Amino acid sequence: MRVLPAAFLVIGAACARPARPSQPAAAPDDLLPGVSEAAWRIHRSAILVDGHNDLPWKLREKAGGSFDALDIAQAQPEFDTDIPRLVRGGVGAQFWSVYVPVDSVKQGAALRWTVEQIDVVLRMARRYPETFELARTTADIQRARANGRIACLIGAEGGHSIEGSLGALRMLHELGVRYMTLAHSDTNDICDAATDDPKWGGLSPFGESVVREMNRLGMLVDVSHVSQETMEDVLAISTAPIIASHSSCRALAPHPRNVPDEILARLRANGGVVMVNFFSGFVVESSAQKMAGMFDVVRKLRAEHSDEKELDAAIEAWRKANPIERGDVKTLVDHIEHVVEIAGVECAGLGSDFDGITETPEGLEDVACYPRITQELLSRGYREDAIRKILGGNALTALARAEAVAREAAARDAAQNHRAERARSSGTR
Ligand SMILES: [Zn+2]
Questions:
Q1: Is the pLDDT of residue 242 over 90?
Q2: Over the chain, what is the mean pLDDT?
Q3: Does residue 144 lie in a domain region?
Q4: What's the gap between Cα 189 and its chain centre?
Q5: CA dist 105 to 129, 167, 196, 204, 345, Å?
Q6: Which of 18, 39, 182, 224 could form a disulfide with 247 if both were Cys (CB 3.0 to 4.6 A apart)?
Q7: In sequence order, what DSSP letters do the residues of 393-409 get, joined into one string?
Q8: Predicted structure pTM score
Q9: How far is CA 294 from CA 318, 361, 365, 420, 426, in A?
Q10: pLDDT, tens digit, for every residue of 332-368?
């Protein structure tokens, strides 16, 4: 079932992209000319963790979520992602986004669609067991990697998915969700979004309880898409590291979706990670200027066109009228370097947003291209251990810390229950 005009997704999340020529079926060593043997060796020794991939929503849009209709074991050149390219790109762990559009709230369908999107990820892992292994913990990721498989993690985007219910949040955690983006394009009952009018001045009172509950559960709080004030509020109350699962740097590309330096400067103390987004509209300065109002444009066009096809055409026309510069691998790595400069090498990561974006830097067209980032970091003089941290080590450390915070909370709860039980039994004696 098509639930939203595809063109909305050009900007909102997963999107249609003009077909590209299929990838050559070559052995790994023949791929990506310009990537040195040394870079390949480092790349293969790392656990590459990508923070955000919108394949589940694109599968829903294009194939009703059916792997019979769209077999990702085969090359799918109209997508950014398929198994042959994930393998060639050396992906170690992928946070699959179980995004649902904010419009789903109006239809009372946000939670159901989110659960259906989780179902897509679980079915994918079970359908391709030689490639994928579901992971809920850092230990699971290490095990999947040791088994030569790609660890599949789940991230929910965004906070509208829980429909205002902490019980729903807990159940998403039970189903394997290990981060939740607090908002998407629109301000919601949890917090102000980066691309909408503010309502709360940051987190709402309910949003504060959501962050505390996520800390207690061991679910990473994702500040992609939220306003700077929301980021500040989250940093003030979160006892675990936060992530921006797919955001780049505002100092280099002035898009409201990007992370400002004031937040980067506070990230080291928190142990958080900014996983840079590959969208040209978030990484190239001129493109970010052009795309700064893109969520407003979509909102306006959505209000003007109730017919899906008309809306599709209107957004596509807007896109054609506003072409953007793509940038290249160096442009993307500039964002990584900026995070490193302001926050530290422990705070940088990758969150491609593949299959959710329309334009990528040249050389970073799909999930096979990650080794080019490794090469560029090596060329810029980054040490091997620093490169491994950026490729995924930092994300793993943040998740491990979130797990530790949850364990500490569980131990505190148990001790408190024990004390209460003792007080009750001594009272009845
Ligand atoms: Zn997003």
A1: yes
A2: 92
A3: yes
A4: 21
A5: 34, 17, 16, 18, 38
A6: 224
A7: IHHHHHHHHHHHHHHHH
A8: 0.91
A9: 10, 19, 22, 53, 63
A10: 999 999 999 999 999 999 999 999 999 999 999 999 9
Instruction: Provide the b/e sequence for 220-236 (b: ≥16 CB within 10 Å).
Output: bbbbbbbbbbbbbbbbe
Q: How many independent structural domains does the chain possess?
A: 1
pLDDT tens for residues 269-287?
A: 999 999 999 999 999 999 9
Q: Is residue 222 flagged as an active site residue?
A: no
Residue range of the domain that includes 258:
43-412
CA of 328 relative to ligand 1 center, distance in Å: 21
**C-alpha–C-alpha distance, residues 373 and 360, integer Å:** 13
Q: Distance of CA 319 to CAs 178, 312, 363, 371, Å?
A: 33, 11, 22, 30
Strand ranges in 348-429 using DSSP code E only, listed in sequence order: 348-350
* In a domain? residue 29: no
- Nearest one of 245, 253, 236, 254 to 274, comparing CA atoms: 245
Catalytic residue among 43, 173, 246, 338: 246
- Residue 189's CB: how many other CB atoms inside 10 A? 18
State yes or no: is 246 an active-site residue.
yes
Residue 148 within a domain: yes
The yes-or-no answer on residue 338 being catalytic is: no
Tell me the per-residue pLDDT of 16-36, one tens digit each, with 9 for 90 and over: 333 333 333 444 555 688 899
Residue 65 lies in a domain: yes
Q: Which of 43, 52, 173, 338 is catalytic?
A: 52
- Torsions phi, psi of 92, nearest 5? -100, -40
**30-89 pLDDT per residue, tens:** 568 889 999 999 999 999 999 999 999 999 989 999 999 999 999 999 999 999 999 999
| Dist. CA 265 → ligand 1 center (Å) | 23
Q: 271: alpha, beta or left, given left = phi > 0 and alpha = psi -120 to 50?
A: left
Q: Is 52 a catalytic residue?
A: yes
Q: Which of 208, 353, 359, 366 is an active site residue?
A: 353
